[in-house]
């Protein structure tokens, strides 16, 4: 169809047989043609004179009759050759009769987005919005803020497309209003920052984030409104922004002809902050530099390096978006020159196939030969992951999977290691056999959902009364026909004020209905719920289903955001320290959040010399005054004894109450509290400008990137000659790297990182960033630096063995049916391929037939099964893939809680640690990143799936809640004891304020006729309180599934489960905790070695403990949540140090305090224990042996920096390190509290 200029664009491939090489620029369309046409050559393939193919773009002008247009070609050289009427095409003109309105819906509130179709409806602003259905648009009307009236009618609405116009009649508006009404449509509530504010930017660089906010209330709409605009478009505020001086911006070439080439980018600036550098290569890398490489004379130098192939010739550009400037490096291949006999690029495509494997998924297979390896493959300029199916990188077949995002035409580009491009277009002859690519990628339109496909639509509630806490609902629907891919559809609110997550489609196999559970928030406005059903290809709008609606009533329509009303520096805005004692500084922040109340937030504190933020989490335990609706919270950070004078401020704030719609600091700008935002710290002047240095660095020399074991281990030694690398300071917790030695002057760190499957290109290079001491002296060691000092600077990328690898699957139902799996390394030949499925029915993994197989995708047909998930594994010629767990999309209705999720426990920092085992989970399970415990395949147990169960005798009941078991293994008498030993009340800094010895237990043994598993009930009271503690001990002889807190928990055979409940308890303070202390001990009669290992996440919350006597072990699991006052909430499992414990080669003991936040009525807890025998020899921590004593991590002071390794064309590893001393902070808090208590007594 034509565009606005009545022009159509087409492409065509034409092949010629000629005795000479043709010039594509000499082709044209004859001027004698009756229609206006233009010809543009795009590409050609001319390796054979007899099949010279050319790919042209043709532009034609539409005619009013929509008649076919004949296309002829002409070649003009020494003579003219005419090729008349080689093809015909039709360029359809849009006529008046084709432009018409089919249907108009009622008006509703909508978020406007402008597209090409224009409309006018004065005095309203009018804009159009596309829908998923062809030629259907949603129209949005808005009126400027401050307009004095809203008419009762819209007036005629006029639409324009190119030179065509049409109108629709006037419509009644929803909320007519004028200034004479007694009830205003809106009224102003708050406005900030004030007009004429003069904001002077600081090193926190807030200017671009500051907005002026107008808050309005609408009694008529029963909602409130936030209107904001950035300072750049504001004439009501004056801004003075910081002028960052860019002293230098350069690129350098570091080349080693026998090894690697890297491009180095360096910038020197006068402010420390995060700087983004975009390095334009293949692909473009956006690198955020968080730490300088050095600092001196008030200048900070940042540097980074990326490797590139030695064959590459061309430009590498670095761009600094903050400065809108660029630096370029001209790179010449080290193989250039006659001595290397460089050849031109020879690239030939043998075959190109597109296979549709689902409605929207395609497998593309390309076979080609090349004398230079392909560095990158893109489709429509988007880089693609392509996997070698067979052959070599120089003569082979590749596959990739494409999820079609409504792609019609496509362009593939192939970039080789020399930086040269080849292109492949749709409908193009791509080889001398004149094979042609497909004209387009076409989705199966018969599988596209439309409103006519619904045979039934309904809601669990047609009216949601929010005053009755009806925040949850379910959409039910059924279809008139089977529709593959229906489970890919999600439910999302079509409402700019409702930023809820998406909700998935499931299927109720009992009712034969599709179901989508969804929740609205207290911010929802009265009226119909506007939603979209989408699979990211196709969208069904709720206004397409106008006869099936659900309405919200009685909403408080809370859309106010948490608002900072006051911020005061603590202890003051200027602090002098003698450098002898650590202390705290920060702010007391008052947060207004009516009516729901503030729950959780984070503050990032930076300084003018340290841009790595100190992240402070704020919740009810930080509140020192007021309540959740209007309270004051502490935002403090600890300063080390050895410090440097600097200024601190707040860089960013996140306050959880949905999606924050403005910068919280905007409320402080222009008020007296703005002067409180910077705290000046003055430390003793000590001349120390020498940064720490690397004394040793080693790393795994090679890694098989297509195997199941892709772990890279590091060992890094650092020294600071002035002793500034003290134990004080903040910690940056990155997985798997920890101190093994630290003495205040030097440190040794070791750790590991598991690389992604197929990581890298040729070599994996390493760079180390962010080495910094407490005097804020910085250092970094990039790839070329490590090379120059003779340290390890790269990892060999071994791609010789390719294991199959599973990534994801299509949705499945327990009814069975097709399941597609995506990944890599599958092969395309079924011989030697086995697909195994564990239906979790006790039969372990069973083979299943393959319906379709390619290198990156296969599908199978599942039988009926009865579990909520299955495990899948593929084996190719004896090489086993990872195990992929696939959850079913069956619908199970659970009665929702009666209150909205506004008081839920705040989310914690995502776990960047991983499960134990080498390889992870010892290839006998998969890692659960939430619990950091391996989910093992049957017959394997323990944190790393390296153990088997020891069948123990049934524990006998004891007078107190203790499980004691003795068994014999390898002539060694092993005794394991688990007991509840104490309950303690802790204050907000975890000091004990009350401790209740456990005594006077009442024991009840369950009747075995009623309860088949051995069960013992214990009950006692805590001291002189009325609080009851109940402990239930159960022994499971067989594997059992239990539910706790809505999650399934698998209990292994011969496991012991402790269930504990605590009744109402009178806390001394609302900020205090209650802690249940458990002790676990393993003892052997004649052991040669004992060891202990602990599993915890970034939050140091204990997930599991494992204590060994030689190969036998006691293994305990601690769940990081409990049921508190009827709701699932996070708890903290803390290790408890006991100096009186004796650790010997025959005995190990661990105490864990299950720490519960303040509660009102009740608590339920649920740990479990089992006895194991180790089969795989995982490394044991803290091992004590009879012959020698080995403490591998006995004096760990904290976790430091992490390591990240990147592919050969991106910077490699990043090791940021600083260190936290939690003990010192708690000691400081305690001393301050004692000082306050003494002051009160005096």
TrEMBL record:
Residues 911-946 form the EGF-like domain. Keywords: Disulfide bond, EGF-like domain, Membrane, Transmembrane, Transmembrane helix. Disulfide bonds join 936-945. The keyword S-adenosyl-L-methionine does not apply. Pfam families: ComC_SSD, DUF7034, DUF7035, EGF_2. The chain crosses the membrane at residues 1195-1217. This is EGF-like domain-containing protein. It comes from Heterostelium pallidum (strain ATCC 26659 / Pp 5 / PN500).
């Amino acid at each position: 169809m034509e565009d606005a200029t009545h022009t159509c664009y087409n492409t065509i491939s034409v092949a010629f047989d000629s005795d000479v090489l043709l010039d594509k620029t000499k082709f044209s369309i004859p001027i004698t043609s009756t229609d206006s046409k233009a010809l543009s050559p795009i590409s050609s393939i001319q390796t054979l004179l007899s099949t010279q193919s050319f790919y042209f773009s043709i532009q034609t002008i539409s005619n009013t009759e929509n008649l076919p247009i004949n296309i002829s070609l002409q070649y003009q050289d020494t003579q003219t050759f005419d090729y008349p009427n080689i093809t015909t095409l039709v360029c359809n003109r849009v006529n008046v009769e084709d432009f018409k309105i089919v249907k108009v819906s009622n008006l509703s509130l909508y978020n406007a987005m402008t597209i090409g179709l224009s409309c006018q409806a004065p005095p309203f602003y009018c804009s159009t919005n596309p829908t998923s259905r062809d030629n259907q648009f949603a129209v949005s009307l808005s009126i400027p803020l401050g307009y004095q009236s809203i008419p009762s009618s819209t007036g005629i609405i006029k639409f324009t497309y190119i030179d065509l116009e049409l109108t629709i009649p006037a419509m009644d508006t929803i909320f007519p209003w004028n200034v004479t009404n007694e009830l205003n449509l809106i009224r102003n509530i708050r406005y900030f920052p004030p007009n004429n504010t003069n904001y002077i930017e600081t090193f926190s660089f807030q200017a671009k984030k500051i907005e002026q906010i107008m808050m309005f209330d609408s009694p008529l709409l029963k909602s409130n409104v936030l209107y904001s605009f950035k300072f750049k478009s504001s004439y009501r505020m004056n801004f003075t922004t910081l002028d960052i001086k860019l002293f230098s911006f350069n690129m350098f070439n570091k080349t080693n002809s026998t090894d690697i080439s890297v491009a180095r980018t360096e910038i020197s600036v006068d402010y420390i902050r995060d700087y983004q550098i975009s390095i334009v290569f293949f692909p473009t890398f956006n690198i955020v530099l968080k730490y300088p490489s050095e600092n001196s004379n008030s200048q900070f130098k940042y540097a980074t390096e990326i490797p590139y192939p030695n064959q590459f010739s061309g430009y590498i550009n670095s761009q600094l978006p903050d400065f809108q400037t660029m630096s370029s490096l001209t790179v010449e291949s080290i193989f250039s020159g006659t001595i290397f006999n460089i050849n031109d690029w020879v690239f030939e495509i043998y075959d190109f196939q597109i296979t549709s494997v689902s409605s929207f998924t395609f497998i593309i297979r390309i076979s080609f030969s090349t004398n230079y390896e392909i560095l990158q493959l893109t489709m429509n300029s988007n880089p693609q992951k392509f996997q070698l199916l067979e052959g070599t990188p120089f003569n082979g077949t590749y596959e990739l999977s494409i999820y079609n995002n409504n792609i019609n035409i496509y362009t593939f580009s192939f970039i080789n290691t020399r930086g040269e491009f080849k292109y492949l277009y749709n409908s193009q002859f791509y080889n001398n056999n004149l094979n042609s690519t497909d004209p387009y990628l076409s989705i199966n339109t018969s599988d596209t959902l439309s409103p006519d496909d619904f045979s039934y639509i309904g809601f669990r509630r047609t009216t949601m009364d929010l005053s009755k806490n009806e925040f949850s609902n379910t959409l039910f629907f059924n279809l008139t026909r089977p529709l593959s891919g229906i489970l890919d559809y999600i439910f999302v609110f079509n409402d700019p004020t409702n930023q809820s997550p998406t909700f998935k489609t499931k299927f109720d196999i009992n009712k034969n209905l599709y179901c989508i559970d969804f929740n609205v928030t207290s911010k929802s406005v009265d009226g119909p719920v506007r939603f979209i059903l989408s699979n990211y290809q196709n969208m069904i709008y709720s206004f397409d289903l106008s006869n099936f609606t659900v309405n919200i009533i009685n909403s408080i329509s809370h859309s106010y955001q948490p608002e900072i009303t006051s911020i005061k520096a603590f202890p003051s805005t200027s602090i002098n320290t003698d450098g002898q004692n650590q202390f705290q500084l920060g702010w007391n922040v008052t947060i207004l959040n009516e009516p729901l109340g503030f729950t959780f937030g984070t503050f990032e504190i930076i300084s003018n010399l340290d841009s790595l933020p100190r992240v402070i989490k704020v919740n009810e335990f930080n509140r020192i005054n007021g309540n959740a609706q209007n309270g004051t919270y502490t935002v403090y950070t600890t300063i080390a004894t050895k410090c440097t004078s600097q200024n601190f401020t707040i860089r960013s704030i996140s306050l959880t109450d949905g999606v924050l719609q403005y910068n919280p600091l905007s409320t402080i700008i222009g008020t007296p509290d703005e002067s409180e935002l910077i705290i000046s710290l003055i430390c003793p002047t000590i001349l120390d400008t020498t940064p720490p240095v690397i004394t040793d660095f080693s790393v795994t020399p090679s890694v098989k990137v297509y195997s199941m074991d892709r772990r890279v281990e590091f060992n890094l030694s650092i020294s600071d000659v002035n002793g500034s690398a003290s134990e004080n300071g903040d910690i940056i917790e990155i997985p798997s790297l920890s101190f093994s030695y630290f003495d205040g002057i030097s440190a040794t760190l070791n750790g590991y990182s598991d690389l992604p499957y197929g990581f890298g290109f040729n070599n994996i290079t390493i760079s180390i960033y962010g080495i910094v001491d407490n005097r804020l002296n910085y250092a970094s060691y990039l790839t070329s630096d490590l090379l120059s000092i003779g340290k390890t600077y790269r990892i060999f990328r071994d791609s010789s063995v390719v294991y199959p690898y599973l990534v994801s699957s299509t949705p499945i139902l327990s009814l069975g049916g097709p399941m597609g799996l995506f990944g890599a390394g599958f092969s395309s030949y079924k011989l030697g391929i086995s697909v195994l499925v564990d239906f979790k029915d006790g039969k372990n993994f069973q083979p299943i037939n393959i319906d379709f197989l390619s290198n990156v995708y296969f599908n199978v047909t599942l039988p009926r099964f009865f579990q909520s998930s299955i495990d899948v594994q593929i084996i190719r010629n004896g090489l086993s893939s990872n195990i992929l767990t696939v959850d079913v999309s069956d619908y199970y209705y659970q009665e929702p809680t009666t209150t909205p999720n506004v008081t839920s426990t705040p989310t914690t920092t995502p776990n960047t640690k991983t499960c134990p085992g080498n390889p992870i989970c010892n290839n006998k399970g998969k890692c659960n990143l939430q619990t950091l415990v391996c989910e093992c395949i049957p017959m394997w147990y323990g944190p790393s799936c390296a153990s088997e169960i020891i069948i123990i005798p049934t524990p006998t009941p004891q007078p107190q809640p203790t499980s004691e078991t003795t068994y014999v293994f390898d002539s060694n008498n092993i005794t394991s004891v688990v007991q509840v030993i104490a309950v303690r009340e802790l204050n907000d800094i975890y000091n004990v304020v009350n401790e209740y010895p456990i005594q006077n237990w009442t024991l009840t043994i369950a009747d075995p006729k009623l309860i088949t598993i051995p069960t013992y009930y214990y009950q006692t009271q805590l001291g002189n309180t009325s609080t009851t503690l109940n402990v239930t001990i159960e022994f499971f002889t067989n594997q059992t599934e239990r539910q706790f807190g809505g999650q399934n928990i698998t209990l292994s055979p011969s496991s012991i489960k402790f269930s504990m409940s605590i009744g109402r308890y009178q806390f001394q303070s609302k900020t205090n905790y209650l802690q249940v202390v458990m002790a676990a001990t393993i003892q052997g009669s004649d052991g040669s070695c004992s060891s202990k290992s602990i599993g915890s996440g970034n939050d140091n919350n204990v997930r599991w403990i494992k204590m060994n006597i030689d190969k036998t072990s006691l293994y305990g699991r601690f769940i990081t949540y409990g049921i508190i006052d009827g709701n699932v909430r996070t708890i903290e499992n803390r290790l408890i140090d006991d100096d009186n414990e004796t650790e010997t080669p025959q005995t190990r003991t661990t105490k864990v305090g299950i720490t519960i936040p303040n509660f009102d009525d009740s608590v339920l807890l649920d740990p479990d224990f089992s006895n194991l025998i180790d089969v795989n020899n995982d490394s044991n921590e803290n091992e004590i042996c009879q012959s020698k004593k080995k403490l591998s991590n006995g004096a760990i002071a904290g976790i430091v920096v992490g390591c990240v390794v990147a592919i050969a064309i991106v910077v490699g590893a990043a090791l940021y390190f600083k260190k936290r001393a939690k003990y010192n902070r708690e000691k400081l808090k305690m001393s301050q509290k004692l000082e306050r208590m003494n002051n009160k007594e005096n």
